UniProtKB/TrEMBL annotation:
This is MoaD/ThiS family protein. PANTHER family: SULFUR CARRIER PROTEIN CYSO, SULFUR CARRIER PROTEIN SLR0821-RELATED. Transmembrane segments: none annotated. It comes from Telluria aromaticivorans. InterPro entries: Beta-grasp_dom_sf (IPR012675), Mopterin_synth/thiamin_S_b (IPR016155), Sulfur_Carrier/Prot_Modifier (IPR052045). The lineage of its organism: Bacteria, Pseudomonadati, Pseudomonadota, Betaproteobacteria, Burkholderiales. SUPFAM superfamilies: MoaD/ThiS. It comes from the Bacteria.
């Protein structure tokens, strides 16, 4: 099963579950996480369903390719890290 991990920066705003899923695409994997915590969707995706500009996702050490469709494949042992950019000075 693929595993999705969310950085602790998101935990300031909502619960960030660690999710194991048999999803075969990134979007389906994210949907599994949103089923656990629906509020998480608004922090990860914009109102068009695309990845927010301040969020980056790595799948098995590689940045996701399409931030609009989120159709990158997930393998049974994939590790997905969802990171929110930090700002400030």
């Amino acid at each position: 099963m693929a595993q999705l991990f969310f950085t602790q920066q998101l935990a300031r705003f909502t619960s960030v579950p660690q999710v194991e899923t048999d999803a075969s695409s990134l979007r389906a994997g994210l949907d599994a996480a949103f089923a656990v915590n629906p509020r998480l969707r608004g922090y990860i995706l914009d109102d068009q369903g695309a990845l927010r500009a301040n969020v980056t996702i790595f799948i098995d050490g590689r940045r996701c390719r399409d931030t609009q469709r989120l159709d990158d494949p997930l393998l049974p042992g994939s590790q997905v890290y969802v990171l929110q950019a930090l700002s400030g000075g």
